[in-house]
Amino acid sequence: MDLLKRENFSSGAPFEEKVGYSRAVRVGNMVYIGGTTSTNSEGVVEGAGDAYLQTKIILQKIEDALARAGAKVSEVIRVRFYVTDISKGQEYLRAYSEWYKGVKPVITMAEVKALARPEHLVEIEVEAVVGSYLIKSK
Length: 138
Hints:
- The chain has three helices and six strands; from the N terminus they run βαββαβαββ.
- The protein is α+β, with helices and mostly antiparallel strands and 138 residues long.
- The chain has a single domain (6-129), classed as CATH 3.30.1330.40.
- Helix 2 (51-68) packs parallel to helix 3.
């Protein structure tokens, strides 16, 4: 059996080493980006109270993590949103469409009771297949 190479990619957040997780993991041509929030490297939640802005910040962080792992936004096949207020769905999706409208990955949005910090309105995770490309939408 051939083993697939695994690479872990850190964002540099101190909590990653303390707890033991990676921002992204690449196995073969699959890239997994873990739950991402708008918390910056100083531990401040950016865009507090603004669902659209938090989503934009998160999607940019995800794009950066994809690039470090050798993937592109156009190779994303799945996006999962965890939100604390589903009534703000249009705000999350407005930002989402700025990155993924032409890519059209599968998407899930689920309302949850709470996220890691009360200021977090949304947390997003994605999966990508490096080398994949859209041939046709049906």
